[in-house]
Amino acid sequence: MAPSPTGPLHIGTARTSLYNFLFARHTGGTYVLRIEDTDTARSTVEYERDIIDNLRWLGITWDEGPQVAGGEDIGPCGPYRQSQRMELYAREADRLLASGHAYHCWCTPEELEAVRQEQAARKEAPRYDGRCLRLTDADRERFEREGRQPVIRLKVPPEVIRFDDLIRGEVEFDNALLGDFVIVRANGVPLYHFVVVIDDEAMGITHVVRGEDHLSNTPKHIALIRALGYTQPRFGHIPLILNPDRSKMSKRKSQTAITAYREEGYLPEAMVNFLAFLGWSPGTEEEIFSLEQLADRFEIASVHKGGAVFDAERLNYLNGVYIRNLTDDQLALRLRPFLPEALEDASVLRAVPLVKERLVRLADAPELLAFLTETDAQVSALYEPDALLPKGRSHAEVASALATVRDALAALGDADFAADLLETRSRAIGEEMGWKAGDLFRPLRLALTGRSVTPPLFGSMELLGRERVLARIDAAIGKLVEAGGPTT
RNA sequence: GCCCCCAUCGUCUAGAGGCCUAGGACGCCACCCUUUCAAGGUGGAGAUCACCGGUUCGAAUCCGGUUGGGGGCACCA
Fold first, then answer.
1. What residues contact A94, with CB distance under 8 A and at least 6 apart?
2. Per residue in A167-184, pLDDT tens?
3. N or C: which end of chain A has fewer CB within 10 A?
4. Of the listed A251, A356, A391, A479, which one is catalytic?
5. pTM of the predicted model, to two decimals?
6. What are the φ/ψ torsions at residue A169 (nearest 5 degrees)?
7. How long is the CA A287 to C1' B14 vector, in angstroms?
8. What is the full DSSP assignment across A250-299?
């Protein structure tokens, strides 16, 4: 797997990494991570860190490659950052130049653009016309005197390239249509197509599994492999992950950064399960799989050929499943970073059963439990007194009903303030007064939490504790009396 | 424009010639459960397997074409 640190770990890169990982684990292979940072202008250590950290977060581990951003490598073929392998690339470029497989090109961007324009006008494929191949020594001397720095281009032989793709089977390209592409920039920094091929050989890569967007780059790589006299690896091109409009998933139209999903509280297990099924299935109707189970079942040949739309709804569903499958202790631990520090660990643990089956993402928890850390005044400010009124009930009636409940609850000691008992007492009072349970519980819920959608009422009361429950009911009664005008 | 790839419910997919009057899941709808919201349960709508030809006793499955979609054609990766 060879990500480029020019942005945070992308969903598509994560999925490609996952497939590489599963393929390597399933077949007993060696999984190599290589950082492709030849685009020095856009590559940063921060992005490298984001990629490494989030790959780890997903549970994807590699046998060879950088272990820490900017840090040490593990493996016999290092360094695993291309920025640290420049001598090798320079050597191979010289070799290609010497053998006549590559040549210098002095064309300026303007000249190249002009050629492209002409070709476009003639409705031809845009490609380099090889003009620098016909340069005289005098031309070259003149360019050098002008201070022009040449790029190096591969002389691409006009031949038909065929290869057996791991996923797509036989694929065929005509390299006569390709044009001599640049392999080393004018500033001496080599380009992606060139270094990939060199490193794959140097690192003993036998299988290249990458996105379908590289399918049409493969003939370039094969041309390079042949010019350099390398061994050709097997290629496998996995389908793209798509935006809802079926275009290649992009930052513009979708959330593509894995970090963002992590921050919203998606579990790595859910993410992995979801990603694995975007383009692959075990061929059965099972759909919940751990990373280990996936590695056990994954077959590269049964990866699909067509692209798959990223369906956030389905991810949400899976995340919920994984959250519900956690033990209370585990969930409390995962929830901790998402909740305010003011909420102590013991309370988090006690709150877990209340929120567990209501969570889609971990980041949904703070809103669900906000009433626990908000002050009584804050809660009271969240609702209008009229919102406490069930249909057909007056301010005075509701105030009186709440007061009755309040007094009954006040009769309970701190130790008896448990959900079961609270519910029994409250229901009994509702019955005595001839109130429908919902009509009584709705204003109670609003009074206690300031919200109409909350975790179960009596469990919430238990967490709030006697004192705050009574205070908040009192506050609600106060608001009702004030809004109800003079009582008769 | 040129080259390449792809094509089963809205979405993710099962399906490798008869098991398919096409199965599952998400989403959607209804009902049940229920103090709200969820979760859970039950049921339902939803795909003439893109289209047209062919091969075959028989095709979603094989072949050809058409259409549609996507990707690539950089001194990005």
1. none
2. 999 999 999 989 999 999
3. C
4. A251
5. 0.94
6. 80, -155
7. 12
8. -TTTS--BHHHHHHHT--HHHHHHHHHTSS---SSS-----HHHHHHH--
